[in-house]
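tool_call: predict_structure(chain=1)
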Amino acid sequence: MNISQLLRRSALLCPERPALLHGARVLHDYRQLAARVAALARHLREPLGVRPGDRVAIYGANAPAYLQAQHAIHWCGAAAVPVNYKLHPRELAYVLQDSGARVVCASPELEGAAREAGADPARLLVLGSSAWEAAAQGAPLPLHDAAPEDLAWLFYTSGTTGRPKGVMLTQRNLLAMTMAYFTDVDEVDARDAMVYAAPMSHGAGLYNYVHLLRGARHVVPESGGFDPAELAALARSVGRLSLFAAPTMVHRLVAHLQQAGQGGEGFKTIVYGGGPMYVDDLRRAIDVMGQKFVQIYGQGESPMTITALAREHLVEREHPRWQERIASVGVAHACVQVRVVDGQDQDLPVGEMGEVIVRGETVMAGYWNNPEASRETLRGGWLHTGDVGSLDADGFLTLRDRSKDVIISGGSNIYPREVEEVLLLHPRVSEAAVVGRRDADWGEIVVAFLVADGAPVPDGELDALCLAHIARFKRPKVYRWVRSLPKNAYGKVLKTELRQSLKESPAP
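tool_result:
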């Protein structure tokens, strides 16, 4: 089944219900939204030559046209390739080349970067442009009858080694993820409104299917992103807001509401994930906003659907293990199995740490054009997450570490090796080790420990080097020059010692 059948279904059942809002202003009802999507799908098919199975990239910031692009791609039977709009053109170029994207849909402000990355000008469609609007008024294309195993979403996730890998999510994966929201996260009805404050290219965008199915409202903030004051105003004017947010966003929203003397009125559900929510921050959030929170843990390879920590678990303060539970990431979603295993994939006893592995209907089909990585990650029929955790006797999973050393800053994943390799391009940097340091606003910030070959390099010089090769948000916020990096007997850098040194001496 084509996942855009959910849009067509709501357009038939509730055609005049408000569907897409820009701020508090209604742009389209469900009939109009479906008509625009079908017309845009026709434009992709006929002038631009997109056939079922082709890939179409979306390189854009949050905007009303983003949701239309996503479903126009599905509607014509192609696979959406959502690209982080913060990526450097060099990084974008790799994604476009590897995916073989036939068309690129880009925000107006990113059109130049898309061209620089190699997008064919004849197949570059600017979101919200006059050409876009003209296409949206054209003749509709019939909904493509997709098979459950057809590719629907190709999401590029960076790795600790080598190039980013394209996670292949099928129509079945997306539908199973959608149903899992209802069983383990929240119920939705037509009065609700999903607000896209986090990037639609990531988890926030995946929650659109849930709200389409229920004929609920989709709200794109006028700012196009996360602004606590704007969200508070939308909560008052639109009401019953649900959103996906990184813990850093929750922290900032709660601080704003507390300072303004407001509570959680107008907010229905805040699903948080993408990084650790510290217990003190969670308690404060519940105290200020009430119990509107649900935590999820997932990966691109099993989107939003490994575990969930439900509302009732967060408020059950009388439970003898409440403190431990709210520090966990909850229990396995109903559609998956979760295990913690040793190096031979054997189950570990309760409380022992090992690798988290997952099996179920939401787990990806594999990595695009990368059979070796697919076999390794999906060996034995289980997704090997690379995350280290432990299960308690009741099935609650606590993540103990991230074996891949990923840094999560502002909800975005940053992989240390990628940054280290850029820093080592400088002739006076002989060694580099990158770690995350806890930060109240960003969750973590990037700190680089460097060994100099000669005199230390000025920060501005290193900043310029990073900006020439990687996205701005991956650039270290702090550079620390040291005589040597701590290593074990095998020469491996001991990043645990570097993190400990940051705790003991947090100042730059």
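agent: The chain has 18 helices and 25 strands. Proceeding to next step.
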